[in-house]
Write a structure and sequence with these properties.
- Pathway: Carbohydrate metabolism; tricarboxylic acid cycle; isocitrate from oxaloacetate: step 1/2.
- This protein has a domain of 109 residues: Cytochrome P450-Terp, domain 2 (Cytochrome p450-Terp, domain 2, Orthogonal Bundle), CATH 1.10.230.
- Helix content is 59%, strand content 2%.
- It is mainly alpha-helical.
- Strands 1-2-3 form a three-stranded antiparallel sheet.
- It binds nitromethyldethia coenzyme A (NMX) and D-malate (MLT).
- The site of D-malate (MLT) has 6 residues, from loops.
Length: 436
Amino acid sequence: KADLRSVLAEKIKSEQERLKKFVKEHGNTKLGEVKISQIYGGMRGIPALLCETSLLDPNEGIRFRGFSIPECQKQMPKAECGDEPLPEGIFWLLLTGNIPTAEQTKMVTDEWNAKAALPDYVKKMLDNLPKDLHPMSQFSMAVTSLNKDSKFLKAYHSGVKRAEFWKYSLEDGITLLAKLPNIAARIYRNIYRDGKGCDEIDKKLDWSANYGRMLGFDDPFFFELLRLYLFLHSDHDSGNVSSHTTHLVASALSDPFLAYGAGLSGLAGPLHGLANQEVLDWIGKMQKELGSKNPPEDKVKEYVQKTLKSGHVIPGYGHAVLRKTDPRYMALQAFGERYLPKYETYLLVKTIYKVVPPILKSMQKIKNPWANVDAHSGVLLRYYGLKEMEYYTVLFGISRAIGVLSSITWHRALQIPIERPKSFTSDALMKFVKGK
Ligand code: NMX
Ligand code: MLT
């Protein structure tokens, strides 16, 4: 029945020794070379980051501490009447590397429930923001503002030793995760429900069910979808924009609230987390223009071609690392097949999956023609009545916090220094090439 803090402290102690030895022995081993094209190409493929929590394989997709999505679905603790992993358990897994017991997972749920309440100043700030300010801007502001009571910040200024920093970062991470559903639900109710609804935690429920309830829903199948959603988006190695931004900011020893506030701003970009909003918007426009909720394949093909011709990307398709269909897409697709197989927009998502890859494959410049997670998440939320597309990325943001806050704790435990890669001017690169 060991608790999270003591399990983690043990793991950190042994990893500190193991990794110190590893770097001492192999610190000079080369992993690759950097080409000039990579400097101009978003650093694609440059092996440069440490991420202990998950590993992304271009063909297989993500593994969380070595466990694939189906393995997590099989082995992780579930809610009483659910089949999907509890995100609280994923937090335990990402932090410690071990699959928790049901009892250990419940300890996380209980702690998050106990710490969920928002300070009055955060509530007031959210209640006074303009309703037409994007939910992601509101989300990032609320997360940033929580740094007023950061334990890490306080510890840093009171002279706590560097070796102890991770403990205070962990406390901030737990506090933040506990409060995220409350923040997110308040934003939703303020924008779409005139501020009405509950913000009280039901201590008998898990994190996802409480979030669903605070959003104003009571369907247990929707709660199950939230568990799946919040599990799937939790981590995607550390090179993606939201994780890398969070790491970069935290490497300056900014506290976890500041770091994740910045990460959320990156997640809000249309090429990253905002794509789930864009997908449903694009599908809605297609349905309107073609005059059908589930248009035939040839019409969908024409619409896709038209989108590409107008210079837009097909949202939900392609990926900087993946070279096959995202297994997160497959997990969401399996959920759709099980619970809403006849829903017309779900059927259209299936048609799009049939039509888009061959078209993108024929455009040589596109490295990955396959669907990513964002191609499927929105349609499921919509089916259960969460129809406000502009809000979708907030769910992604609640989930991604699990991974990046675990990573901050590890980076502090391993005392990874401030990130500061070298940059060049184009003239300096030309001079370098001439001198060779
Ligand atoms: N539709 C049309 N064109 C595309 C697509 C797509 N789905 N994906 C890539 N391309 C283009 C891309 O814009 C680039 O064109 P150009 O050289 O003219 O600038 C070219 O193909 C080469 O891009 P890649 O090297 O294949 O992809 P890259 O690694 O640069 O970008 C994404 C990855 C994900 C940003 C890109 O595939 C994309 O814009 N997809 C649509 C948006 C999306 O679904 N984003 C969500 C990603 C997942 N997430 O959750 O964050
Ligand atoms: C993510 O989950 O962060 C996205 O798939 C983007 C990425 O990995 O680059």
